[in-house]
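Slide 14.
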Amino acid sequence: NSCNEVKPTCYEPKSGHKFNINSIKWFPKDTGIFVSSSSDKSVQVWDTNEMAAVEKFKFSGHVYDAQLSAKGGKTSHLIAAAVSNHQVKLCDIKSGSDTHTLRGHTAAVNNVIWSNRNAYALISAGRDGKIVMWDIRRSKAAVHCFDQFNGNSEKAHGGSVTSLSQTEGGLYLLSSGQDEQVRCWDMTNGENTFTNFGSAACADVKSIGAAVSFNSCYPGLLYLPNGSDVSVYDILTGQHITDLSGHFGRINAVCYNKVIPQLYSCSSDCTILVWEPPGPSDKMDDSSAPTKTPYQDSWSDSDND
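Slide 15: predicted structure.
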């Protein structure tokens, strides 16, 4: 794989967050809108044409993740927010207010993700080791707690859940945790597939952004930040395929572009890298490579030099 560094185009925002920004997510159907969550206890909706926040939602705790619904329809205007006060909040862009409070976690919520299978299904993961599926149409919204043993423990991981990602059709959900495990969940029954990824996740991180490559004929590959590298796994077999190296600091998140085969990674070394699969021109033809005898250099004009 080859990688290139992204050169930023700088804008001076008219307004912004006061503390750390924990996540940024594009509106799935419009590149003119994105949402950001922050430790200043807010979620902001941004207009890229104006480069300004056009809506702001305030909460009683730090917001570690926020995501707009991708399925459209009646949930297209909803933002799900993962809050440190053990709650998941739903915000309505149209009305400018939070509409639902989902309670079920016993510690801070790290991640939220809307299901690719059902427009009304939301999945959250927290520092209590739980992964919960919600049906936002119900008064008792929690419909399933993922269990690592497929029993009644209600614990998906032995420690904090650090990432959530899913395949394009929503058939599989991938999670990683501070127990250094990656788990693949069958979303048709909510059970652990017991795919062996080995010891794959970092134990000392609170939250990272993982990604899955999309392919219409295959579930795809999991891209998981692992220190300063991106570890790549086969989703079906759990096989560790390779590590992408290029950063000099801890990688915080990765994002896959399903329109063109590119992966983006951001790191604490203050860089964003773009990764692409090798093309035909990147492969060296061994038959055309010059041959050298032992102790022969390639810079002298003659044997006497």
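Speaker note: Residues 108 and 133 are 16 Å apart (CA to CA).
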